[in-house]
Specification:
24% of the residues lie in helices and 22% in strands. It has 334 residues and is of the alpha+beta class. The strands form four sheets. The protein has a six-stranded antiparallel beta sheet with strand order 1-2-3-4-6-5. It has a four-stranded antiparallel beta sheet with strand order 11-12-13-14, with no helix packed on it. Helix 3 runs antiparallel to helix 4 and helix 3 packs antiparallel against helix 8. The longest helix is centred in the middle third of the chain and has 20 residues. It binds adenosine-5'-triphosphate and magnesium ion (MG).
């Protein structure tokens, strides 16, 4: 069956004379994903049909490199190819029933310890991509999958592109996580732009929000990103330690030269960031509260919630409470 763009394949349809569609897994910015049975290997895999690139030759220089990429931190690519004569690229990977970390981190992020662990995993996967002379170009929470053991694997390598000898690749990315220098005339992707997206991804894992204000039309969001307008991680997540906040802000430096020099550097900085003793995370805001956090039990310390309660324009009380509703000794409203 010839593949064509924009077409949705029903259950049972065959793709590339090898794959039979079991279920539609959804569509993204750059293609459509199906759970398929690989009839050669008699196993189920995820197949992403990538959107066509009008006017470009039916070749895919990166395909072979992608198949060779193997790491404990990358979603394994089984097959990357172009289906002739339709010129549609496709990529097959392991099917990940555990879903992506973006879903796990919505709406308030995960604990700082969990965000660091996944951030380090993603950074190691990204470093492997860079070591092959490729840039990923779409690092974001929705492109990071969870194993049964709870580890994070960087996936969606379909947009990966070979770096030219000067270390640049054509621009691409998702508004919420793309680096500002990728946008606009002459924009390019580099190792540094992937490092920015990695920082934006860990920012999301910590807070359930992106550094860019993503509300409104895509064009407006892109204009904000390009202008360098962004929020600070500790403004949206006061539970994030100063040390960890500094790592994130460095990844999100507007000048690419100010960012950590490699994804491995980010992994090391994340792993050695000092974090609070207690395990803190954001929780959904209580009614009329501005921002609420929970600190889980730590050794002899009791679980506690900290809430910002507005008291007037640009003013709030900070309330510290035990689950019983009582205030812990020594804590008061300020
Ligand atoms: N290997 C996989 N295993 C399980 N689900 C997958 C796999 N790959 C993709 N999916 C799911 O298929 C859906 C579509 O994925 P897709 O990558 O096309 O979209 P996206 O990640 O939202 O955006 P983008 O196109 O920017 O990557 C998502 O819900 C995603 O979680
Ligand atoms: Mg994706």
């Amino acid at each position: 069956m010839a593949m064509s763009s924009g077409q949705s394949y029903p259950v049972g349809a065959r793709i590339g004379d090898r794959y039979a569609v079991v279920r539609d897994l959804g569509a993204g910015r750059d293609g459509h994903v199906y759970l398929v049975t690989d009839e050669y290997l008699a196993t189920d895999v995820a197949l992403k049909l990538l959107a066509p690139r009008p006017g470009q030759a039916a070749t895919w220089d990166e395909a072979q490199l992608l198949e060779q990429l193997r790491s404990d931190f990358l979603l394994p690519v089984f097959n990357a190819d172009v289906a002739h004569p339709s010129d549609l690229r496709y990529i097959t990977t392991a099917y990940m029933p555990g879903g992506d970390v973006g879903n796990k981190a919505a709406p308030c992020g995960v604990t700082t310890q969990q965000a660091i662990q996944w951030g380090v995993d993603i950074a190691h996967g990204l470093d492997r991509v860079h070591a092959s002379g490729l840039v990923h170009r779409d690092v974001k929470p929705a492109n990071v999958y969870l194993t049964e053991a709870g580890n994070a694997l960087l996936g969606d390598l379909g947009m990966a592109h070979r770096l030219d000898p000067s270390g640049v690749a054509p621009p691409d990315g998702t508004p919420a996580t793309v680096a500002p220098e990728v946008l606009g005339q002459g924009g390019v992707c580099t190792v540094a732009s992937d490092v920015y997206s990695l920082g934006a991804t860990v920012f999301y894992l910590l807070t359930g929000r992106y550094p860019a204000d993503t509300r409104g039309e895509t064009q407006r969001v892109l204009e904000r990103v390009k202008a360098g307008s962004k929020r600070k991680v500790r403004d949206l997540g006061p539970h994030v330690s100063q040390s960890l906040g500094q790592v994130i802000e460095k990844c999100l430096s507007i000048d690419p030269a100010d960012r950590p020099g490699s994804a491995l550097d980010v992994a090391n900085r994340l792993a050695s960031a000092k974090v609070h003793d207690r395990v803190w995370s954001l929780v959904p805001d209580h009614q009329d509260h501005l921002l609420c956090m929970a600190g889980a039990v730590k050794r002899t310390a009791k679980p506690v919630t900290v809430c910002a309660v507005p008291t007037g324009p640009a003013q709030c009380n900070i309330e510290v409470r035990l689950p019983s509703g009582a205030r812990p000794s020594g804590a008061g409203a300020t």
